[in-house]
Amino acid sequence: MGTVIVVLILALVVGAIVRSMVKAHKRGEHPACGGDCGHCGGSCGCH
């Protein structure tokens, strides 16, 4: 039972992180490369 609770908590945390990243991407932010795509040369997949 304890394992199920831990897995559910981890799933919620990971889901929240993914949701935050998707929202940031929709706003035009790219946290993986510092948010300044003009200087990354497209290596972070911004373009």
List keywords for this structure.
47 residues, 1 helix, mainly alpha, single chain
Task: Provide an overview of this structure.
This protein has 47 residues and is an all-alpha fold. It is 53% helix and 0% strand. The N and C termini lie far apart (45 Å). The model has no long low-confidence stretch (mean pLDDT 79).
Question: What proportion strand?
Answer: under 5%
Q: What overall geometry do the principal axes of the alpha carbons give?
A: elongated
Overall pLDDT metric: 79
Question: Helical segment tally?
Answer: 1
Note the main sheet. Answer: none
Q: Radius of gyration from the CA trace?
A: 15 Å
Low-confidence stretches: none
Distance between termini? 45 Å
The helix fraction, in percent, is: 40-55%
User: H/E series, N to C?
Assistant: H
β-strand number:
0
Q: How would you classify the helix and strand content by structural class?
A: mainly alpha
Pfam families: FeoB_associated
Protein name: FeoB-associated Cys-rich membrane protein
Q: How are the SSEs placed, and which strands pair?
A:
Elements: H1 2-26
Protein name: FeoB-associated Cys-rich membrane protein
Organism: Pseudobutyrivibrio ruminis
In short:
It comes from Pseudobutyrivibrio ruminis. By secondary structure, the protein is mostly helical.
